Amino acid sequence: MTRKLFVFGLGYSALTLARSLMAEGWRVAGTTRDPAKAAALREAGIEAHLFGPGRPLDDPAAALAGTSHLLDSAPPEPGPDGTRDGSGHDPVLAHHADAIAALPLTWAGYLSTTGVYGDTGGAWVDEDSPLRPGNARGRERVEAEAGWLALWREHGVPVHLFRLAGIYGPGRSPVDQLRAGTARRIVKPGQVFSRIHVEDIAAVLRASMERPRPGTAYNVCDDEPTPADEVMAYAAGLLGMEPPPAEPYDPATASPMQRSFYSETRRVRNDRIRTDLGVRLSYPTYREGMQALVRSAG
């Protein structure tokens, strides 16, 4: 029997997973907010449906029929007034929790963020660390995680949580920024970030599908939390370019996204993906990741 993955939110990470599964004969269906993107996805062999904030699936039963594996990659909706104040909610649970609970799923996953741990001043966290989000996005993710775990406890939906670090990969990396002339090297002493290559995200999700452990959370990150300015300088060296000039971080001139990004620092452990899922990262540090990106682009 052909396995079917349904993805709420066919974005960068989810599409990487989808393509690898389709190459092995899986059916893939999922959602986008954009009618033009839906048409392009259908051309690529994906059963695309429109879905987004305030727009549930037109026919949930028909869209979800035959789904064996389900992934929620949709970001939380903004709060009632359209702002990120922590009052947003997961649109998938808001619109389709009952339909999902009725499915005979083998596996379900929710893509969360390591932001649920909040600021630890650079101290290490693992999956058993307290969830202390320090900003609105983190609070919304904690709420969404709780909602998915409730589906597991109350309805037996085989839910797994994946707390992703900063995502990079082809088309979305310091290498691309340097080549496009848009790179910046912002320096904030003591600040480190965990990151993860998009192909390693797909590898972790696939490993979980093969070894389901409902109710489990996994940190999805590489082995070496590192300041962003060091990664930028390393990528510039690989390209034979001078790194962008160092810019001291200034919250007064930073964008809201930058302020959120730089407001917290923590080091995230990834032991569980290795011990429980047997995952061996293809890009265990940013060095392997940047080297591969430079090679692939010629």
UniProtKB/TrEMBL annotation:
Molecular function GO terms recorded? 4-phosphoerythronate dehydrogenase activity
**Chain segments carrying region Disordered:** 69-91
Q: Which residues does the UniProt record annotate as the domain NAD-dependent epimerase/dehydratase? A: 110-221
* Basic and acidic residues bias: start-end ranges: 82-91
| Membrane-crossing residue ranges in chain numbering | none
SUPFAM superfamilies, sorted? NAD(P)-binding Rossmann-fold domains
Which CDD domains does this one have?
Answer: SDR_a4
Keywords carried by this UniProt record:
NAD, Oxidoreductase
Protein EC: 1.1.1.290
Annotated PANTHER family: EPIMERASE-RELATED
Protein known as: SDR family oxidoreductase
| Annotated organism of origin | Rhodocista pekingensis
Q: Taxonomic lineage of this organism? A: Bacteria, Pseudomonadati, Pseudomonadota, Alphaproteobacteria, Rhodospirillales
